[in-house]
Write a structure and sequence with these properties.
The protein is built from 12 helices and 14 strands. With about 375 residues, it is of the alpha/beta class. The protein has one domain: TIM Barrel, CATH 3.20.20. Helix 1 runs parallel beside helix 2, helix 3 packs parallel to helix 6 and helix 7 packs across helix 8. The longest helix is centred in the middle third of the chain and has 21 residues. It binds flavin mononucleotide. The site of flavin mononucleotide has 25 residues, from strand 4, helix 9 and helix 11.
């Protein structure tokens, strides 16, 4: 396999207090290696290996905020409590010693169960309207107090991220979890100020989270928000069918304080909308950047065949050229590219890209989920 000049991937990136040595981001990936929510030395070493091998920005696995039902697996790390935060201190110190940059992905799973376990939190599962997906009840609808505390919990986690020395943070607003359940009309039937017929109204919860996070971290600390059209409950759902609706959805969130939109799609090369005025080829991150002016991260099947949900179902993947990515980045369609499975599987992946050592790229199989390489 050959691939084109990758120089664009290795250009530095600067935004507010964040300075990255290159444009490659380790995508957030839940690993469930943190018993009782505490990330140990093995987790710190796993992230440090990525920093030692040139990853520009590491986004942590989803790490949960301080709400009783924010997690759906006992080995998902917490981002609250003295012992868990001490574990995260070790993580960020190791990454910094290796010259890396990192942000935690802060998360509340809403009413989504984890397919790997029957474990459920001791508290009631919570979501905007007590639904997992349209017409499928799970857990309870959040009260005003629950919502206020969830917003405050995101802000407390953000303050902790900054205090520990992280370089940025990502709020998980994608893939059908709590924040996305507020966005999605199918799971948000509220008639108060957190619900409504329009995506702009249903974005109110996210806006409130972002505003409180912004207050917690101050004006100069970069905030990333991850969003997706697709839901794990239904890959075909689209929150914004048109660019105008995408503006209604995302512009208020940028206004509320987001610096970087992390636009999750399963295949980065897929156009976001059918042909519109010569912009037909733009992907989700391309459109989000064009419509909001925010910096964006793209993601989805870089360097590997297949896609993430197929990998969860056991499909193996082989290394693939990413020339199409280089072309898009050369055009300035988006600013940064996140890579999931390829970096999960191989801590040296970015060094290999830099060295043009494509012969050394590895394929991916489900066995990788069980290892912290
Ligand atoms: C094991 C695994 C765990 C994941 N966990 C998360 C997560 O915690 N938060 C999140 O936003 N995305 C998560 N994802 C999605 C990835 O961030 C990424 O969007 C997806 O894997 C597509 O990128 P890829 O094709 O390069 O793997 C996960 C993916 C994998 C493979």
């Amino acid at each position: 396999m050959t691939f084109s000049d990758t120089a664009i991937l290795f250009e530095p990136f600067h935004l507010k207090t964040l300075s990255l040595r290159n444009r490659i981001v380790m995508a957030p990936m839940t690993r469930t290696f943190a018993p009782e929510g505490i990330p140990g030395r093995n987790v710190a070493d796993y992230y440090r290996r990525r920093a030692e091998n040139d990853v520009g920005l590491i986004l942590s696995e989803g790490t949960v905020i301080d709400r009783p039902a924010a997690s759906n697996h006992p080995a998902i790390p917490h981002f609250h409590g003295e012992t868990a935060l001490a574990g995260w201190q070790r993580v960020i110190d190791g990454v910094h010693q290796a010259g890396g940059r990192m942000g935690p992905q802060i998360w509340h799973v809403g009413s989504v169960a984890n397919s790997m376990t029957d474990w459920v939190p001791a508290a009631e599962i919570e979501s905007p309207s007590g639904l997992l997906s349209p017409g499928e009840p799970r857990g309870i609808a959040m009260t005003d107090e629950d919502i206020a505390d969830a917003i405050d919990s995101f802000a407390r986690a953000a303050a902790a991220a900054k205090a520990l020395g992280f370089d940025t943070l990502e709020i998980h607003g994608a893939h059908g979890y709590l924040i996305d359940q507020f966005f999605w009309a199918g799971t948000n039937e509220r008639s108060d100020r957190f619900g409504g017929a329009t995506i702009r109204e249903r974005a109110h919860f996210a806006s409130e989270v972002i505003k409180s996070v912004r207050v917690a971290v101050g004006p100069d600390f970069p905030i990333i928000l991850r969003v997706s059209q697709w839901k794990q409950q239904d890959y075909t759902v689209r929150l914004a069918e048109t660019p105008a609706l995408m503006t209604d959805w995302l512009a208020p969130l940028v206004e509320a304080g987001v610096d970087i939109l992390h636009c999750s799609q399963r295949r980065f090369w897929e156009p976001e909308f059918p042909a519109i005025d010569g912009e037909s080829g733009l992907n989700f991150a391309g459109w989000a950047k064009k419509l909001t002016g925010a910096a964006t991260i793209s993601v989805g099947s870089v360097g590997l065949s297949g896609e993430v949900m197929g990998a969860f179902a056991g499909e193996a993947s082989t290394p693939q050229s990413f020339d199409a990515l280089i072309e898009r980045m050369d055009r300035g369609e988006f600013d940064l590219i996140a890579v999931g499975r390829a970096i999960l599987n191989d801590p040296e992946w970015v060094s290999k890209v830099r060295g043009n050592n494509s012969a050394a790229f590895k394929g991916f199989s489900a066995a990788a989920f069980g290892e912290l390489y």
